[in-house]
Amino acid sequence: MLNYELHMALRLILAAVLGGLIGLERESLNKAAGFRTHTLVCLGSCLIMIVSIDMNTKYGSVADPARLAAQVVSGIGFLGAGTILHSGFGIRGLTTAASLWVVAAVGLSIGSGHYITAVVTTAIVLIVLVYFGGLEEYVKVKQKKLKRIDEIIADRPGQ
Predict the structure, then answer these.
(1) pLDDT for 43-101, tens place per residue?
(2) Distances (CA, A) of 47 to 16, 36, 51, 52, 82
């Protein structure tokens, strides 16, 4: 029993660490949801998944682990919506909302015992958050250099 509890504690600690890593990146950019929010979302979703699987083990098919996981996925939308702001002609906070959503998925993954998947996902998320912003700016600059040419031709066969 103690081995099981230590294994579950390891899952919770890993969830806090991985969620915190993503949260640190958001915090470094002074986003609405930062280190603590991402850590808590990942930790909470991990705990929900652990409890859900444990309930299934104890009570059989009456307790479906997917039901609680689905509630995390839909419930995180409420928290994510709070980070999205409409300002003038733009919308801000979509990336932070998406990072909260993926952090919840990382927590569910760890809670269900998929450690490598969670670590790889975290690495990919950090690459996207840190490096893809520069790629977006590069593409925007390239788009500004493109010119549009309109050509008007007669409507004849073969044109």
Answers:
(1) 999 999 998 888 888 887 777 878 888 888 888 888 777 777 766 667 778 888 888 99
(2) 11, 16, 6, 8, 23
